[in-house]
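Entry:
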Amino acid sequence: MLTGIIAVAIGLGVMVLVHEWGHFVIARLFGVRVEVFSIGFGPRLLGVKRGPTDYRISALPLGGYVRMAGDNPAEERRGDPDEFLSKPRWQRVLIALAGPTTNFLMAVVLTAALFVRGGEQPSYADKPVVVAGVVKDSPAQKAGIQAGDKVVSFAGVKDPTWERLVLELGLSAPGHSEPVTIERDGRLITTSVQSEPQPFAVVGYPAEPVIVGSVTHGSPAESAGLMESDVIVAANGEHLTAPLQLSEIVKQNGGNPMTLDILRDGQPKMLELRPTWKDPGDGTPRWQIGITFRFETSPRRYSLPQATLKATQFHIVLANKLVYLVGELFTGKVSLKQVQGPLGIVQESSRAAKRGFGDLVSLMALVSLNLAILNLLPIPILDGGHILMLGIEGLMRRDLSLKIKERFVTVGMVFLLLVFLIVMYNDVLRLFPSH
């Protein structure tokens, strides 16, 4: 938990600071007088004043804020030309947009840096989507997808790779119907599949060597002599083309003895074992032999232009999906129980920090993109709310009264407070195993 808190303080703090820096830069570009640029909140600890701006470090080091001259209609104004409210509406709109835009660019930069740095990725990731098999009673089987089918279009994306398809599925709302076109024996067949968290259950799984990632202590696999990095080529005499195929065979085999043909350091061996009925820790008991799989991987690095393009495309797709999910939240099609609040962010940050620097940077990029999207919501006190108000005033060709603006802001604050309390409540419930 402490690791998570530190990670959140650094990650979220930097992302909020970047957001405010965006407002600051565009405000200064339009000649708005910025009175305070603060790293952190609360009492001023130290700083320096350059021109009209007090660059300060404040007591609470979580994010920061920018205070522009004349940006509060409730306070007394002198009407100076360098005050925020003295600027044309289009300039104020651009100043409001600058924060979310900077967060989006920050997400792209962080992700592009990871792509340039490079790393191992599953070998199937950048290959065409050719289905090796489908899980029984899965959305793929219900949609009529079969082994050997090639996906030529998914959710409007033509000729997707497995990487792009997994991304689309991972960001699709559970239960949402996605259009898919497959090629079978030279014929094109159009159907639809229901999204769910497990991508390979939705469209089928790719051909992949069945490589043992780890063996659980005291499991049937350990008793039989199965070892990490063994390649399982057949189970009960059936040739294997993917790890999920073995999972299905174990499930159908039940508690009966079964044989595994393996390759260890290139040498063939045969092992016998009997699956056990057990809960692996996710609350769902099932027949299992006590192993995890690992993918065959290959190193992949990208040039800076490739990485930038790939990161931009990734975050455009992700932003579209986030906007869609926010819409589903407002229409009630997605429950607020699926939204993580501060405690959830702390937990995820802790896990990411423990997994390594790359995972933490990936989480920071995701948080930055979320800040960009959420701040553009047309809710008072958020940037989107300011833009909405300016749009209304532009259509009316006059300013709204101070009383209306105050009510507008009050409604927004109450709404955000209610959402915060709900997600906090759900976060606390998730701490208990029954939830």
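The chain is about 45% helix and 25% strand.
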